[in-house]
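ASSEMBLY PREDICTION REQUEST
Request ID: AP-0331
Submitted by: J.K., bench scientist
Number of chains: two
Total residues: 468
Priority: normal
Notes: Please return the full assembly, not individual chains.
Input sequences:
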Amino acid sequence: MGDLRRPNRGPASAVAIVGPVSPLPDAFAGGAIGAGRLPKEVIATRRRRRLLEAAVVVIARRGYTATTLDHILGAAKVGVGTFYELFESKEDLLARAHEHTLAAAREPIVAAIAAESDWGRQVRAALAALLALIAERPLQARFALVEVQGGGPEALARYEGMLAEADHALRRGRGAGALAPGLPEGLEHSLVSGVAWVLQQRILSGGREADVRTLAPQLLAILAEPYLGEEQVRRLGAGD
Amino acid sequence: VTKRHKAGDGESRPGLFRLPPGRHGLPRDYVVRNQRERITAGIVASVAEHGYAATTITSIVAAAGVGRRTFYTYFSSKEECYLDAFEQLSTHLIEDMRAAGKAAGPAWPARVRARLAVLLDLLAANPDLVRFALIAPPAAGEETIAEHYRDFLLGLIGVLGQGAPSGSRKPGSLTQQALVGGIAALLVAKVKAGEGERLRDLEPAILEQVLTAYLGRDAAAREARESA
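STATUS: Completed
Returned structure:
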């Protein structure tokens, strides 16, 4: 890769006739610049990533059902032959794109949780990280939270797995609050799915409303109040 | 269950009730109503089984036991047929919830409980309705359907919590949205677990959540116990 940035040795015209021959700049060597010089694996990795990213963007814009492989190949500027060297099928590409997007989103949320020790603050931190992702990466959010629900059983199972992970984390609140004993069964699933639905409606409204991050205090109250009670959640919301 | 809920109560389920072909001497408007109901039952059964995207006119008419041409005398597309059935169902559910609340007397928690009980019983009588109205719409990937689905859920929560005592805190629209989105998820999970006939089991947990949103947690837990 280093020789791509070879310093320009200046025009080769007159000197070439007299002195020692200096090679012509790459631009005169014939053939395309760049692609041919990269190792095969690097090119494959780049194309793979381009396809994954194109799949996310195209599906976020068109929806799962209306997206064809041609749309994605066009957006990624990758040929059909190359595509099949990298992925088994359109379904395979979509599944990998979903995994890729979820893994990328999971990282900052998990880090935000790890930075806090108290359950209430962990919920607050996770929520802030999630809302920041949705605000900053709207297409990825639409793909991973909304469109994926139309992506067939495998995609739906992955989406539900993500919610189940959040259910599980929230459930730890049963050990945190004085109010926890006697909370109804299924509460976590209901709270997490309810918040997911609110966020989906926001995403579907296409940014016509205020920044999703402004919802943080209300969503925190929805998630934490059943465990901690009103007063403690108010303090938590105020940054305590 | 009134006769409006035919699509849900089995007697008009496809294949169980079919007009004899040819001249049967039945009044024309009876035939028309019967055909429409069969198509409605047909699309409910087909969407419940295959999902919205994989449902076709062919699968609808097969489940309905009517001809293709009959389908097209009533509807011009799958989407139109779906939305018609969806509207019928949501109107009936919401009307029946409202009526049950009125019949339950003046106490608000008792009204909430009665409305919820009717909703759960109507859906438990035919769990396909949950697949049709709560599982299929988010997976359909169609904007119009997403809008109808959203309006349906907002209508449900509107009628469920209606008439809260003046002393209660009014949950904001965001809290109401989260509440009804969560309730829908509980119904869906129950049906997916193969326990659609036992939706009524969810009543205490859902009741407590609804009351909590309006009364605060302690008062809600007390009311939920007392009205049970």
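REVIEWER COMMENTS: Residues 1-17 of chain A have pLDDT under 50 and may be disordered.
SIGN-OFF: pending second reviewer
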